[in-house]
């Protein structure tokens, strides 16, 4: 394990997710390597961010080698190996993700350009801020020299939600569930697919043996969980989103186990009929900081329709941000 600190940028660091994420990162969520945090916020939030940094100091985290804060992305992203783009306006009650496209799109053009200019050559960029897939597309398109494969959007929270629902239904431990898949957009059209998942080595759909539950409960519960949390908390998910952001970054950098895969929204190469260039969620394996889409899965007619619907939404979002001149 390298003793050179991993430089990790977090945007929106004074926000809800930041308040959970920073402490997880600093306490070793990515592994034993020391880390340096580079925290980006807008000017009005810098004072609050100073308070968060005071708390980070007060934890005396052994792995935290330094913290820098600021509002200029070209300073904060300088030399970063990992950029976690969280900062964006969250959805409020009654809002759909489409409403966020124009509000948040501009943030990701500027940040894509800044990363292109100053990030380390090995940078990996994970987008949590919504609409995550399309924000990642905007950042990727504006970072012309960074390979497209270095961008991903977060669907790990959906993946974790799906595992949790399946565990509750079957009485299994989450530790026994493998090969869950989220396809498409991090939105209500996403398709959580348990047909390839396994519970203690057995096919999950066969263990569940209840298609009505899959269609009427499992899929909508996972897909609409974000809205259910907003409804209950009056604010969007934060600790679970931070946890999933850590899980996704750790697995991307350190690799997935041989008997499992994870869900990540990555640039499509045309696999499974998803148009090339869209950032869509797939089952992926990772090794040494690179990901590969799992190939050869059989897609039933039921699954096909759901994947196509979510991918159509991604194509619409792409058309909308093209129209807005963001890509
Ligand atoms: P929040 O409003 O609490 O925090 C967002 C922070 O971003 C604020 O502090 C704001 O000042 C900052 N910010 C705004 N513009 C910025 C910019 N240009 N540069 C740097 N920082 C900027 O929101 P939150 O609850 O922490 O959520 C953040 C985002 O994550 C939202 O878009 C939310 O919808 C999204 N989210 C995604 C997932 C997922 O699974 N992908 C899950 C939960 C939330
Ligand atoms: C979530 O999935 O919890 C977030 O993306 C918040 C939202 O707007 O749904």
What features would you describe in this structure?
This protein has 327 residues and is of the alpha/beta class. It has helices at 16-26, 46-59, 73-76, 100-118, 132-142, 156-170, 204-208, 211-223, 225-233, 239-254, 301-323, and strands at residues 6-11, 35-40, 64-70, 82-85, 124-127, 151-153, 177-178, 181-183, 191-193, 198-199, 202-203, 262-267, 279-287, 290-293. Helix 2 (46-59) links the parallel strand 2 and strand 3. Helix 4 (100-118) packs parallel to helix 5 (132-142). The longest helix has 23 residues, at 301-323. The protein starts with 5 loop residues before the first strand and ends with a helix. The mean pLDDT is 96. Bound molecules: nicotinamide-adenine-dinucleotide (NAD) and (2S)-2-hydroxybutanedioic acid (LMR). (2S)-2-hydroxybutanedioic acid binds at residues 91, 130, 157, 226-227, 229, 236-237, 241.
Q: Key terms for this structure?
A:
binds (2S)-2-hydroxybutanedioic acid, EC 1.1.1.37, alpha/beta, 19% strand, 327 residues, 43% helix, binds nicotinamide-adenine-dinucleotide
